Amino acid sequence: MASNWFSQVAAVTAVNLRTVPQRRGSSLATIVGVAGVVIVSIAVFSIAEGVRHTLSASAASDTAVVLRSGSDSEMMSGLQRDATRIIAEAPGVRRSPAGPAASAELYVIVDLPKRSTGTDANVPLRGVQPAAFDVRDQVRIVEGRRFEPGRNEVVVGRAAASQFAGLDVGNHLRWGENEWTVVGIFEANGGLPESEIWCDVGVLQPAYRRGSTFQSVYAKLDSPAAFTAFKDALTSDPRLDVKVVREDEYYAAQSRALTGLIRIIGAFITVLMGAGAVFAALNTMYAAVAARAREIATLRALGFRAGPVVVSVLAESLLLALAGGVIGAGVAWLAFDGFQTSTLNWSTFSQLSFSFAVTPPLIALGVVCSLLMGLIGGLFPAIRAARLPVATALREL
Amino acid sequence: MKFLPLIWSNLKRKKVRTIFTVLSVFVSFLLFGFLVAVDNAFTSGVDVAGADRLLVIHKVSLIQPLPATYGPRIKAVPGVEAVTFANWFGGIYQDPKNFFGQMAVDKDTFLDLYPEYVLPAEQKKAWLADRAGAIIGRQLADRFGFKVGDRIPIQATIYRKPDGSNLWEFNVSGIYDGAEKATDTSGLYFRYDYLNEGMGGRLGFVGWYVVRIADPARAADLSKRIDGLFANSPAETKTNTEKAFAQSFANQVGNIGAIVRWVLTAVFLIMLVVTGNTMAQAVRERTNELAVLKTLGFSRGKVLGLVLAESLAIAVLGGGLGLLLAIGVFIPALGKALRSFLPVFFLPTGALLTGVALILLFGTAAGLLPAAQAMRLRIVDALRRV
Lengths: 397, 386
Known about the structure:
heterodimer, A: alpha+beta, two-stranded antiparallel ribbon, 14 strands, 51% helix, B: alpha+beta, ten-stranded mixed sheet, two-stranded antiparallel sheet, 14 helices, 55% helix, elongated
């Protein structure tokens, strides 16, 4: 009984699929429609994915960021030198013979022209202490060398170097009254530091008239679990007035607004375009059913039941949509994955360089969406096919 | 005109198909309205920027403050009509999610430089009389239900008072409206003297200067002069027109316009294929009827016109509904959802005209190929086909 049902399904579906080339135009329209939706939505979501990846790739849960209490980002924070020393000596901070893995930092913005447009953009310049390279252990110099403490030298993140003009090793740059030399390029697993320019904080403070103040302390802890003790020690210290957050949470909060906006817009575009593609698929499948009305009626007269007819129409629509989905995902991946660009990070008012990330979950999402469109687009025509009155359909010309 | 019933019955011939085709065109134009509004939200600052206003910022970057002493020196430059200054406050109202801009401004000159902020005279008087007074934009007032006389507490993130307190309170003296639809009314402006007093009276710096010049054509020349005043000082300046500033800011966000155009092109190409295909189907099915029409004496031109009119009708119906719904329902609703990110969210009139032109273009393009086929139909061949 069951095998009979399946063989009916197989037979009708095979007949259906063999007639697809006869409806080349409308089948192609369905494929193109679905592919278009998948390409556009994957492209938009890959922006959000890229931003999220950049802000989380190099952030660790065993790194703590210490800011002045009440400030949301480094831009607004301020810490005195004494406070940064107390923080570096706090319990839970990883230590090596060179001292504690804690870096007091200053975060400012400089104007540099974008390579793509030539217009000025706010590029983050971070003054760090030597321990910064131990705190962010994923940072490696890939060209040139580190800056030397006390000199006007900078190292530049890989992404910033590719987005902004003049950041090549050996170049001289002028900001305010000081001239700086680019001495190296670094990578950080595609993370946020790659958007930044780093220099010695001791040189940056006088250059920006910040006296002996800093904005943040980044500290590497013994383990993620050491965070609570570290935080409690600092927040209960009467000499300090600070806020302590895990680095990964700090950056996740920064990415939330931007990725939230992109996702709202992306979802809206996807739903609308998806609806458009479903209408196209419905048209195609209704036409397919109408064109084969006599054929379907003949099958029914021969004893084929309604189920296999429904399944065969659905199978055709699903296959067309799947083809569109796979093509769309492939095109999106080839065209957008890794596309480098930069935008404004509102939390720090500075440029965030990132690349579009077409991730496997996004591709899966695209294919699932395409199947959904195929399902909706095929379901109603399939029901109509099954309900065709055999006698009238046979009489039709 | 007499062919209207014929076109109408052609459309009704396959109701389901017509409805779905109209719906897919409808969706495309809804999307058009939405995306153009997004693009406009990022770039409208450039269009509304005052042509006679220059911005003077620190040469290194916007976040570096400028000495408060620069104002009179800029004012003395020949060709400069008025000068004011502003300072970013960056506080939090209840929750960081409730973001809106707060600026400390000079009470005496600010409104003179920004005539697009329309404030009733008595509210202006109240603001001048109350040191802790603030004027807020209409959109901001609507967002949180602020009324004149309310007290708004803001947590400072940058300006902590000498006694260590973060809390600043402002009295709503007035609510300003935008002179134009594109005017951003999402901000709060309060008095710089209140900020300075709260900080112990030793602020000594401002964020940036705004300069009105008599002749916009001299903007480049005056910018150079102003920057020349402070060359080789510890705080060198960079002066530019407000428009150039808004443009560079929009560029910083990214090339939104290019992304939007790219998506729209994709959407329209796809919809063209889809609708064109439906039209072709409709014509193919009616080969016999078209041949009969020709036999009855319909000219080639008339047959072409009939098919084109049908596809135009679908485009106008779907596209028109899409644009109307976008303006009437979707854009206001989304504007509300997105207001903390994009304070200015509407469809400009120019874009509306583009939309109408696109509808006509789209209807013609989708019907052109099938219409041409129908026109070239030879009666003998067509009637022979069953």
